[in-house]
């Protein structure tokens, strides 16, 4: 069986992979995350997930028996990608746009080994209740929005804003577990059901 590497600095992704009983080694693959002009959000997240997996594979001294997983998450509203906030003002502006509305969360997962790279994109919809300015300010002060796509975490304090989720909860957090398990099986890597 190939050794699985997770090309991610995200603690959420590590926890999600561990949740379904998949042993892995974490590595960090740095890539340029700039969107290309006119690039659709779905194409963007898929490209980044693939680039993370391929950069991770390229960084290994012995890639022959390795499989590398990369993922990327973006919050999308009216065709606009709302990434991680640059600063407090950016986070507050993002959360103000999301307040009282439904948005899309796109998460791509990619698996690469020495002979192929496969990827999938999972779309989910999340609705927020209306959020007051004072609440947004205290949410920023909590520290949670700083490193999250769309400036919130559904698995954290941000859960109190979420009135509805349609799609994959784990994908919103950072890794679509059903799709990831299926893809891992295709690379001969079992989840909890098949581990002794
Ligand atoms: C929407 C949402 C995002 N997030 C997080 C997941 C990701 O860590 C982050 C999206 O940014 P990404 O750029 O997808 O990932 P990352 O830079 O954190 O990690 P890496 O590229 O090394 O894999 O936002 C949550 O934790 N909860 C949420 O509800």
Automatic annotation (TrEMBL):
Belongs to the Maf family. YhdE subfamily. Nucleoside triphosphate pyrophosphatase that hydrolyzes dTTP and UTP. May have a dual role in cell division arrest and in preventing the incorporation of modified nucleotides into cellular nucleic acids. Gene3D superfamilies: 3.90.950.10. The active site is at residue 72. It is an enzyme of class 3 (hydrolase). Keywords: Cytoplasm, Hydrolase, Nucleotide metabolism. The record marks 12, 73, 155 as: Important for substrate specificity. InterPro entries: ITPase-like_fam (IPR029001), Maf-like (IPR003697). Its cofactor is a divalent metal cation. CDD domains: Maf. It comes from Metapseudomonas lalkuanensis. One of its GO terms (cellular component) is cytoplasm. One of its GO terms (molecular function) is dTTP diphosphatase activity. NCBIfam families: maf. Its EC number is 3.6.1.9. SUPFAM superfamilies: ITPase-like. Pfam families: Maf (PF02545). Its main location: cytoplasm. This is dTTP/UTP pyrophosphatase. The lineage of its organism: Bacteria, Pseudomonadati, Pseudomonadota, Gammaproteobacteria, Pseudomonadales. It comes from the Bacteria. It is found in: Cytoplasm.
């Amino acid at each position: 069986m190939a050794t699985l590497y997770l090309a991610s600095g995200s603690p959420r992704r590590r926890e999600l992979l561990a949740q379904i009983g998949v042993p892995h080694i974490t590595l960090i693959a740095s890539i340029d995350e700039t969107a290309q002009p006119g690039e659709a959000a779905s194409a963007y997240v898929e490209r980044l997930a693939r680039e993370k997996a391929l950069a991770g594979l390229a960084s290994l001294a012995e890639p022959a028996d390795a499989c590398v997983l990369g993922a990327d998450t973006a919050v999308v509203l009216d065709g606009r990608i709302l990434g991680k906030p640059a600063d407090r003002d950016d986070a507050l502006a993002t959360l103000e746009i999301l307040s009282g509305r439904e948005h899309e969360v796109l998460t791509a997962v990619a698996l690469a080994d020495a002979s192929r790279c496969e990827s999938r994109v999972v779309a989910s919809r999340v609705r927020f209740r209306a959020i007051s300015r004072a609440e947004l300010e205290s949410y920023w002060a909590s520290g949670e929005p700083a490193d999250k796509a769309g400036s919130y975490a559904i698995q954290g304090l941000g859960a109190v804003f979420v009135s509805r989720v349609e799609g994959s909860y784990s994908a919103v957090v950072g890794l679509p577990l059903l799709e990831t398990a299926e893809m891992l099986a295709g690379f001969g890597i079992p989840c909890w059901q098949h581990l002794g």
